[in-house]
Every structure is written in C-alpha cells, then in structure tokens.
Amino acid sequence: QSPNSRRLLLEKFLFKIARNWISGNTYEDALSSARISNGKGMSAILNFLGEDTTDERVIQQTVNEYIMLLDLLESNSIDGCISVKPTQVGLRIGVDSCLFNLRQIAKKAKNLDRFMWLDIESYPFVEDTIAIYLKLLKDYKEIGVALQSYLKRSSSDLLHLLEQDANIRLVKGAYTENDEIAFRSMDKINSNFSELMKTIFNSNDGKRNTLFAIATHDPRLVNEAIELSKKSRTVKRKFEFQLLKGISDEMKTSLVKQGFRVCEYLPYGNQWLPYSVRRIKERKRNILLLARSLIPS
What we know:
alpha/beta
C-alpha cells in the first residue's frame, strides 16, 4: 500500500470515530442532527468547521455557508443558531477583515431573528475577538461570545463584558497555553469556572434580558449551576446548558426533563480532523470516550 492509501484508510477509520461528536461533512448532515436534537427537546448550535484561514476565497465561501445555514434553519423551522470562529472568517488577515465578514453574517442573523455565537480561540486571538464582539454587539443584540476559565485574564474580561450587557458562553478552554497566561491544573480551571459562574449569576444589574450559557460536561459544575439558578431568583440573565454532540447524552436528557434549556453543539464540515484531535487532547476524559467508541455496543 502506498503512503497515500494508508493515510486515506486511517482518515476513514478516524472519521467513523469522529462521527461521535461531529454531524458529518455537509450542511444536510448538520440539519439532520439539528432535527434529532429538536426531537429530544434541545436546541441546536451549528458550527461549520474551519479555522486559521487566510485564503480570501475560502473565507468568502465560509461567510456564504453561514448565511445559507441561517436561511436553512429558518426555512426548515429548526430551533437553532450558529457559532462562528473568528479565524475562519478573516481574523488571521486582520481585525477589519474579520469584522466586515462577521457583520455580513450578523446582519442575516438579525433579519431572521436568529442568535449567533462567536467561538473563542487560542490566546493570541482573545483580545481581538472580544473587541470585535463588543463592536458587533452595538448593532446586533442577539450575539454572544465564549469565555475560557483556563485563562487568567477571563475574570477581568468577564467584568468588562458584563458592564456591556454581553451574552456569554462559559467554557473551560481547549487550547494549550503557558503558565503565565493560563491555569494548567484541572482543579484551578474548575475553581475559576465556578467563580466566573457565580459572578454571572450574582450579576443583576443588566439593562436587558441577556443570555448566559454554561458549556461544560462536568457534573459537579452543572449541579452547582442548577443550585445557583435556584438561589438567584432576581437574576436578569437567562441561562442555558450547552453540550457537545455525542457526549453526556444522559445528562442532556436529565436536564431537559428538569425543565432547563439545553443546546447541542453540532459541528460539521470536511475540517473535522483538527477539531477532533483537539477534542481528544483537550481532556483525558475524551480519550476514554474515544476508547469507548471503538467498542461495539
């Protein structure tokens, strides 16, 4: 067998595994997954995979894909929204390019009254992503940004975002950073997640009914969020749980039954390999999930 044949066989094998947490290669696959999510009482968050793009032709194709996706969510009456990575729509080229492209997508989302999330990426892009987000928020209120608990800067970023009535998705973080800028131990990452979550639940001075998303599969943090939601009776921030496709399905079912809003994050596209590798590296628990997926049920 040639090296190319071996590579194709390996990719085919890995794709079968990756189907645990991605919808497939096409928007039809994503819409199919979204319908399944809706059928289980969950909303869908669609993400067209791709990042670190500098090819302007590919960037424009990505912008067009998201605009088409919003139209398809609407025409198919699917309860769902989109999530975009800034580096897939021009942030590698520059802030102005990225902002221009995100405005095109956000304008379509606003016209259809659909929500839009900005994913957060590795540390070098965090500052620009937050700055871009706050510019977009002035014109498009139904737009949110992710914040990572493993970054030491996130507590100050959170306070700044809360002052601006931001919609926030709280995640742990999926990138590798050095000790100066990031917490490395899981205990510290979890502790910071807890502190950031408390800050948001205790923040009752919002001028509007903003959204807060808890995006973790950690049962302790999920249970803590439930308890905080019960105590924070005056909280003005709606909140929801966001969980990855194919992970913690029992938890999702339980949360839906308890009456919480649950959203399933559904990535799709042919750039599934780098996404899947990062998911596996991100947490030891995901390696166990990978091993489990190899065992026939």
